[in-house]
Task: structure prediction
Amino acid sequence: MDRCIQVIDFHINVRFTLYISSFMDNLQTEVLELEFNEFSKGMPTISEVEFANILLRYTILTAEENEEYLQRMKTKVEDVKVLYQDVVAS
Result:
């Protein structure tokens, strides 16, 4: 009987883990979509600097470090536009 309970418990834990994983993936996709829409202001694209801001927004960098990364990126990157699909794929 203990074996049966272990098997049932295993299946419940696997399903719960898969549910949480799926939930987190969906949540991340929705947050990225909100972030993209905030930066794009209704346009279909954002700049690479705005994309970098999305990625750096929740880091533990100081404001000075954040600005240093952005300034370095601005000197090395051409003005390329980023689509929402590009954001989700990253």
User: Anything to note?
Assistant: The two ends are 47 Å apart (CA to CA).
